[in-house]
């Protein structure tokens, strides 16, 4: 009898475990088709928004500073993040060999100048002799043959002097060319800006195949480039107001205006690139930051701009679990249960006081038996 009771108890325990584990095992293996939604970032200017799109911060003025010669870095004067002015020395290549060549070239210039000076002195001397001999010829003291010989010698010395002067100019040009190459060993900043890439280290080699040394971006030229659906392009025009919210600073809003509408259409996405520029100084904004741009029908007052945007979670994504509000965040095909704290009503749902970041994908309308760790795939939309 006791054995029978133990068997029954064991079977009951196995059944309970199966009832608990089988659904979890199934949820971990089989993908459930669900609809997706996301956490939205709603601006206080929602009533004025005509189009919303996402994009990235890009500088309009960028200089990838390179080198004209091969060499090894002797000194690097900047680091990533440094602010530089046009003409500042960014780095220097080793130049001992070049200075040696310049010294040799300058010695050749000095020697050529000495030869030219000797030629001029010889020419002056023979001209003086020729003048004296011509005076004697005029007096009838000597014949003309000597004067004629001197005239021929003068012509030869004049040609020699011209050749010596040309040699001086050629040697000086060679020396100047070497000095220009020496100057190329110093890499200078061509524009004002900020160093946005890590410069090379002292001792590194640079070659003509990869001559880029430093990348500089003018942060005063930062804009946001965003893709706008071509079906909404008629709502946008250059000069119209808009606002920017950076993913890095979701509680801060920046005034902007539409700068330029692109001249090409991305046929794969059916979008057109649009650039917008910051109206006010964009402190702490750096290239490649993600941004959300809201194009407005009318400009906002400074007071309205001070109101922070709100995170909004759709009510359909909220469910109760163990007496608390939770959402299921979708990441790499798996749903993770995340507790949240919500506030009052907001456009599109409820204000999210504590929870996932804007743009986070969520499961819409999770069923009552939906489990943490459930594998999911997006339900195909009905056409």
TrEMBL record:
Biased amino acid composition, Basic and acidic residues: 372-383
Annotated region (Disordered), positions in chain: 349-383
Superkingdom of the organism of origin: Bacteria
UniProt entry keywords in alphabetical sequence: Coiled coil, Signal
Pfam families: Beta-barrel_RND_2, BSH_RND
CC terms in the record's Gene Ontology section: efflux pump complex
Record GO terms (molecular function): efflux transmembrane transporter activity
Coiled coil: 147-181
Domain (Multidrug resistance protein MdtA-like barrel-sandwich hybrid): residue spans on this chain: 64-206
Residues in the signal sequence: 1-27
Annotated ranges, domain CusB-like beta-barrel: 224-297
Record's keyword annotation contains Transferase: no
SUPFAM superfamilies: HlyD-like secretion proteins
Annotated family: Belongs to the membrane fusion protein (MFP) (TC 8.A.1) family.
Protein's name in the database: RND family efflux transporter MFP subunit
Native organism taxonomy: Bacteria, Pseudomonadati, Myxococcota, Polyangia, Polyangiales
């Amino acid at each position: 009898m006791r054995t029978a009771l133990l068997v029954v108890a064991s079977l009951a325990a196995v059944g309970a475990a199966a009832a608990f584990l089988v659904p979890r095992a199934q949820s971990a293996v089989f993908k459930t088709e669900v609809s997706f939604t996301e956490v939205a970032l709603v601006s206080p200017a929602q009533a004025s928004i005509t189009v919303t799109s996402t994009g990235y911060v890009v500088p309009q003025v960028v200089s990838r500073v390179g080198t004209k010669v091969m060499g090894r870095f002797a000194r690097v004067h900047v680091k990533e993040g440094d602010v530089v002015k046009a003409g500042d020395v960014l780095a220097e290549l080793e130049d001992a060999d070049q200075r040696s060549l310049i010294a040799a070239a300058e010695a050749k210039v000095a020697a050529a100048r000495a030869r030219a000076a000797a030629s001029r002195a010889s020419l002056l001397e023979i001209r003086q002799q020729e003048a004296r001999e011509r005076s004697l010829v005029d007096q009838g003291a000597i014949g003309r043959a000597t004067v004629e010989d001197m005239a021929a010698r003068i012509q030869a010395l004049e040609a020699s002097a011209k050749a010596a002067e040309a040699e001086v100019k050629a040697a000086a040009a060679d020396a100047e060319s070497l000095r220009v190459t020496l100057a190329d060993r110093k890499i200078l900043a061509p524009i004002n800006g900020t160093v946005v890439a890590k410069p090379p280290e002292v001792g590194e080699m640079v070659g003509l195949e990869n001559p880029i040394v430093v990348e500089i971006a003018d942060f005063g030229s930062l804009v946001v480039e965003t893709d706008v659906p071509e079906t909404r392009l008629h709502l946008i025009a250059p000069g119209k107001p808009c606002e920017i919210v950076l993913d890095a600073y979701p509680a801060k809003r920046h005034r902007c205006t539409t700068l330029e509408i692109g001249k090409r259409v991305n046929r794969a996405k059916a979008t057109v690139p649009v650039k917008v520029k910051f109206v006010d100084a964009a402190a702490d904004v750096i290239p490649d930051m993600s941004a959300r741009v809201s194009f407005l029908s009318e400009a906002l007052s400074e007071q309205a701009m001070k109101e922070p945007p709100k995170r909004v979670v759709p009510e359909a994504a909220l469910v109760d679990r163990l007496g608390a509000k939770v959402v299921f965040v979708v990441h790499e095909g798996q749903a993770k249960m995340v507790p949240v704290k919500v506030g009052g009503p907001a456009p599109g749902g409820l204000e999210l006081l504590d929870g996932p970041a804007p743009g986070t994908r969520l499961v819409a309308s999770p069923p009552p038996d939906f489990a943490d760790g459930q594998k999911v795939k997006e339900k195909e939309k009905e056409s």
